[in-house]
Structures are given as structure tokens and as C-alpha cells.
Amino acid sequence: MPTWWTKTLIPTLRQDPAEAEVPSHRLMLRAGLIRQLSAGIYTYLPLGWRALNKVIGIIRQEMDAVGAAELLMPAVEPIDLLSRTGRDVEYGDLLFQLVDRRGQRQALAPTHEEVITEALGAYVESYRQLPLSLYQIQTKYRDEPRPRAGVLRSREFIMKDAYSFHLAVDGPGGLNEGYDRMYDAYCRIFDRCGLRYEVVEAESGPIGGSASHEFMVLCDSGEDTILKSQRGDYAANIDKCGIGDRPWSYDGGPATALDEVHTPGLSGIDDVAAFLEITPAEMLKTLVCRSDDGWVLAVLRGEHDLNEGKLRDVLGVPVHLADDVPARAAGFAIGFVSPAVVNSIPLARMVVDPDAAQGRAWVTGADRVDYHVRNFDWRRDVGDALQGDLVRVADIRKAVDGDPSPKNDGTTLRAVRGIEVGHVFKLGTKYSEAMGFSVLDETQKRRPVVMGCYGIGPGRILAAAIETSHDDDGIIWPPAIAPFLVQIVPIRLDAALCKTCGDLAGQLGAAGLDVLIDDRPERPGVKFKDADLVGCPIRLTISEKTMARDSVELTLRAAGRQKAQMVPLSEAVARCREAVNCQLSAADLIPAASR
User: Fold this and answer.
1) CATH of the domain at 359
2) What is the DSSP letter of 257?
3) Mean pLDDT score of the chain, rounded to an integer?
4) Residues 29 and 172 in one domain
5) Beta strands 371-376 and 259-262: pairing type?
6) pTM for the complete prediction?
């Protein structure tokens, strides 16, 4: 059955909303897909909900095709469950928390790793029950400090999360096999949704695990930075990206003595550089970090940023920037620390980035508040500590545009922006060990279950599609996820035209093409503008003029109005189907409501 515009809710807007920051946010509001209820919380209106359900339908088909079973887990989970893996602390203020009438602390679920592990642990006892894959499509909650860009970073969002369970990493039925199967399924999902995407190496973040990949849609308004090699043989997000070999040496430092300079209240690199009339590249940044086995210094060139994931991998233990209060109590002059402090405060170790491990006259902190020094020299001012195991040189900074590719093939990295639409993780045994989920293997010994985790944001897919496919007039939908494939626009609303519209819509529906009929008593110009704004792939215009020729005017949204063509009414259905067939599978032609 077709949908008549006057029988649904499509509140289009003429002007751009003031709060909209990026094209997808602006157009989703203007085309009547969503309405903001509060910061980061949106109502999906009928058009938006139809498009979202088409995305979900594709996801569900591909998850079913790889043998994943669907379930639904609660949106509320006990804080005690999260505390068993430490994620109550890792998520911190991102958690929406509440206390129920029994006094139990609960959280609105940000993800469901603990919940699914608890459930499987109750029912799976033997390796014979593995491998096993399950998924859900559920609402998640994260109290983002700065929700922005519409549904791209919201506080309440729908997510497809899948989990796989294995006895081992390698071999038949292992995690690697299951991970590759899900990876391929994700590629099919994004291909079917009409997205142009890159797969990049990624950090696992608070999810954890040994390896992960992100699926990124490249666009200038993307919130994430991706670095790609010039040859296209490497891509990673900024939190994971490696940097090629960089020569380093402590030799060749200045012969001049240290020169202490009073820099009152100037603890920031940029402020000090401006005060001393130098560039940040001439300064050393010494960051005080904390690991389980003591203090750690991370030393970078002034303009570079620490990559905590790289530092963790170098040390082999979790590490984080130290809190100021205990660091000051230990004797660190926070904001004015130099690498030489290694000789006065007991440290676990010091890690120096290669760009900072150079023999030259550096400016750095003086290890007392409000003072810096010129002419710092590694050999002279750190001395014997450089020779032992306490200090090492390693890549610990975030990559930037122009860095050498980690392939070490003479090419450089180029930075681009992207939107993350999917993320897959090799979790390993992080959650199963923390929650005591083990099975009996073939020798009747207990082994922790090996897990994988796989997430997709359907709303982010919609937003990414709009970000990369729109013009000044509105959305240009990829056909597979358009709220309607065809919009019929009658110029007048007499009985004959309405009957023709209804008959044609019925024929299109029988052919698998869902239809929106704009039956509003509006001027043609208003209807055409709204048709461009809503962005259905095909517009069929019916008027007295076209009826006189027993035809309809067919316009492809992607081609623009200038490409409109008259098509015999008897051929309209075939021409519409032909127009979308090359971009859609047979499954995608099934209307969302009948899936």
C-alpha cells in the first residue's frame, strides 16, 4: 500500500535550524526525519524511522546469513556487573546511573559485553556448544559531555551489537575464522547501504581486546581523523596509527650551559614558545604518567600529542596520565617537568619518542614551578640513566599528516576525516576470565571462552549516507535505504489524477517499489522543493499535461531536474525498476514493512 503524505507526519522546514552543525544534522531536521527532544536525544519521525528500518533490515539479513542468532538484552544492567570487568570505572561519567527502589545501583547499558557473557556462562558448559554467535538490535545510552552533529554523537542511540564465542583463537571454529566472517558481513552491509568506506586499524578503547578494525565513511565533516599511506596499503585511525622509522641520536647536543628562564604562570607549550620567541618543535614536552608499577615519564617534541595506547603497548602494562595532586606530592613540578627529573625521583621508566631523542639545544621545564631552561642536552643533563633499562626510545605519539608510513616504503601518511559506522573487536578472554566463563575442552579441562564483539550504528549509517550524498536542495538517498524509492507528485488533486496515482502506486508496490504520494493541496513549486529535500531516488510527476499524453514525467533525484523525461504510463513501472535495479539486490526490493 502506498503512503499518502497527508496521512503521515513529514514536517519539512524551509530554513536551516540554528543548532544544526553538519549537513546530515541540518537535512535530517529539515526533511522531517528527526526531532530533538533534548541534547543528544532524538525522536525518529516516520520518514526517519522507515529509513532506519531499511538499514536494520539489511543488517539483520546479513547477520542471519552468517549464522548469528538474534536475541534482546535488557537496557538496564547492574553496576555490580560492570564492576567485575572494571568498566564502571573506565566508562566513568559516560554512564547513565540510577538507584532503584531496592537501593541497587543500575546503569543504562552503554554496551552489553558483561550481560551477554553472564547469560552464556549460565548455559554453555562444553566446547561442543561452540562456536556460537548472537546479536541484538537495541538502544544504548552514553552520557556524552558534548553531544553534537545530530545522531552522529547522541546520548541515546540504536546499535546492532553481535558477540561470538570460541574455544580457541586459531583453527576451525576459532575467533580468527569468526572475526573474518563478521568482517566480510560488514563489508556486504555497507556495500548494500550504498556507502563508500575504508576499513582501518583501530584502538579497542574501553571495549578492550587484542585487535580491532573500524569501518569509516570518509567525508570532510567526519569527527574522526584517519591516516592513509600514499600507496593505499595502510590505513588507521589516529589512536592506532603507527609511524615509520625515524632516526634518532642523543649525540650532538649544545656545548653551552643550561640557561634558566623565569616563565611565571606559563606551563603550556604554546604560551612558553610565544614568550621565548621559539616554535613548539624546539621544546620537549615531559608528561607524568602512572602505571601499576610506578611513575612513568613520556617525553615528546613540543607540538606532538601522546598516544596512551602506544605507550601501553611499549610498557606492556596499562598506563594513564597521572593526577596532578599525587604527582605534585611525589615531587613533580607539573607543567614544568624535564626529563632530568629521572635522576631525582624514583621512576618505573622513561619512554622518549624518536623525534624528541635528538641531540640539539632543547627548551624544557626546569623542574621547579614557573621556570624553564634553554640548552637542555640529553647526554649532559640526563647522563648515565640513558645507558640502562630505565630509559628507552619508542614511537609513543599520535601520527600527523606527513609522517613516514609504517610500511617504511618511502611514502608518507595523509590525514583525512571520517565517520565511524562499524567496529569489530577481537576481545580474547578479557570478559570471560573476569566473569568466570569457561568450558570443558576435549580433555575435560576448563578453558576460558575466547570472544569477539561486533558493533554497527544504524543511525550513523543514515547520517553518513546523507553527509556523502546531498546537494544544496536536499538529500540524495542511496536507493537501498531511502524511506521511499518513488515519490509521486500529482500537480492537481482531481478525482482522475488521484485514481491514476493510486493505480500506479499499486503497480509499483506489486513490483517491490515502495511509494509516497504527495497529495497535499500545495503549489507545484512547494511539492518539488520538498521532493528534492526528502530525496526519494525517483520522482514521478502527474499532471493534466502528462495525462493528455498518457505519460508521466520521471526524474531521478541523483541526476537532477534537468534530466526529467517523459515516460509512457504503461512503461513507468519497468523504467522505475530498471532505474534502481543496478544498485539493489532482490532482497533490498522487499518493502521494509514486510520484512
Assistant:
1) 3.90.960.10
2) P
3) 91
4) yes
5) antiparallel
6) 0.86
